[in-house]
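W.,

You were right to be curious about this one. When I first looked at the sequence I had no strong expectations either way, so I just let the prediction run and decided to look at it fresh. Below is the sequence, 243 residues in total, followed by the output.
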Amino acid sequence: MKALIQVESIKLSRSLGVFLLSIGMPVIFFLIFSSTAQFDDAAIQKAFIQSYMLTMTGFSMSGFALFTFPMMLAEDRNNSWLTFIQHSPLPIWQYYFSKIVRVLLCFVSSIAIVFAVGGLVKGVEMTAQEWVISALLLLVTSIVFLAIGLLLVQIQSEQTMSVVANLLYFVLAIMGGSWMPVSLFPDWVQRICKLMPSYHVNQLVTTYAQEGDFLWKSLLIVLGYVIIFLGITLVMNRKSEQQ
């Protein structure tokens, strides 16, 4: 286990550019768009910046889940590293656990950096409890993006997988309200947005931070999507093994 985690840490250090880009782009978006929108009411302005900080954090985390996570699994599959692990004495769960540890490290880094920029640069103010619970909610709900990432791994072509991941990355962000409030869209688009897992991730986190309310319905919907995506992944994986 320790050796596998060391391997993942080495791979992470070698992809430092991608790591910084996955965090840097959402931070830049956050700084630009939060400065562009100006409201006369100071309370509304404060709530907007806080909400934008939280949604951009989720946006950053989704990038790791949709790109870094599936690409590293596909790389191990194509270079036969996964096959080697499967035929070694190491339990396969340790392999996947080391991958999850790597991605969780990326998630925690996203949260720490975007939150730091929000608090120190944009003046976002929350209690210690609100900061911590908001971070925990982001971590818990990020499993839906990891589930999508596992589903993407079933695509055999890395080029096709990259194209699909890019498409999902921006569709989930836009339709989930990460870049702009869903209320600005036409009614028929809003109805589609409310079906997106990213919408419920954003609603769960921002509603808690702003109102102190916990949207159990959104959490259950997110977990429901996780079960669906994992179920589809298992079915596709079994069919692939049979072939």
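Here's what jumped out at me. The CA atoms of residues 8 and 102 lie 6 Å apart. And, maybe more interesting for your project: The mean pLDDT is 84.

Coffee later to discuss?

I.
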